[in-house]
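Colleagues,

For the teaching module next term, I've prepared a clean inverse folding example: a structure given as tokens, and then the sequence designed for it. I'd like students to try predicting residues themselves before seeing the answer, so please don't circulate the second half yet.
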């Protein structure tokens, strides 16, 4: 309906939720997509806020992804 989607997951984007969504959509629906999550990086130990910021998982990162999708969608 919107032809734009953002997935957000608190782990690696490879083979995660975004990958599953992309597999379904690519065959049937033309859609602009952004995935928010860690980028093929081993996990680290630390406080939640530090890790969320380091790996780009804060709310502002998701909002930025939405803006990128909408810009690409046109």
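(Answer key — instructors only)
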């Amino acid at each position: 309906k919107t032809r734009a989607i953002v997935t957000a997951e608190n782990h690696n984007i490879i083979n995660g939720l975004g990958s599953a969504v992309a597999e379904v959509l690519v065959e049937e629906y033309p859609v602009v997509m952004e995935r928010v999550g860690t980028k093929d990086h081993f996990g680290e130990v630390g406080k939640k806020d530090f890790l969320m910021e380091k790996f780009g998982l804060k709310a502002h990162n998701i909002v930025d992804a939405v803006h990128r999708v909408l810009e690409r969608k046109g």
